[in-house]
């Protein structure tokens, strides 16, 4: 038998290099569908308390429970979110093609302030650029139906096996993650808190703010109140800016049209109710499901939207939070190794 030309260390380095290269190729090939796997991981954490209660505590059949969870996720989360997104895409495209309504509003503002700052060609160009930018980040039923179906299929298929083979899945994580058992438990708890804060918490806050914004605009007779309420749902994921990007221009519009009472009413509802309900809900939810710093959320949204499109509103802050958690774990592991090494050398 011929001797191998590589030393043991060289073999280890080459093996790790091959693994990294193959992993890079796999990630590159699945790059367009990576949101499906990330979405499965998020839903696994969100619904796992239900799964544990029904399967581990009550002894229900895990396959039946898993199928029930998949149907619930599809009907209650995936399909409504998709329908909402498609409605938003269609309305944005409509406003991009028909600039007459927007120009009428801008001309009204110009007459009130006595200064001309727009022309129709510039507004049309800006709107077309905005529509083109949004079209790249919002799923379109006409252009990417197959891509969307594949992502949803991958997500549900992956989630099914994560639940039905829960034991082997968690065992594999513990085996291949380079952390101690205690650290893995703490890491899992931190990641669960991040998912709850970014997904459940932020979605609830966004929904409440969108509902209040839509009702406020409807009460004060702003056109397309339902549509702008949907817009505010997505914008509410962005800290600080959020819903004021919807109700503040609506108030300015009413004031420029001479409807002073309606304009002031929108401003009062916006500053007193909508913005404060955001702070109140964040304080209440932080005690129950974890708190995420607004700067992490803002940076995560900017990062996520560029990578994942509209799903980046959720995935971006999650990725940034996971990175910070892993950095803390890495720091702690190194500190423990240093302490252990120092004790062994002293003895």
TrEMBL record:
It is found in: Membrane. It comes from the Bacteria. The chain crosses the membrane at residues 12-45, 65-89, 145-163, 199-220, 227-247, 259-277, 298-325. It is a multi-pass membrane protein. Pfam families: AI-2E_transport (PF01594). InterPro entries: AI-2E-like. Keywords: Membrane, Transmembrane, Transmembrane helix. Its main location: membrane. Coiled coil: none annotated. Belongs to the autoinducer-2 exporter (AI-2E) (TC 2.A.86) family. This is AI-2E family transporter. It comes from Hymenobacter volaticus. The lineage of its organism: Bacteria, Pseudomonadati, Bacteroidota, Cytophagia, Cytophagales.
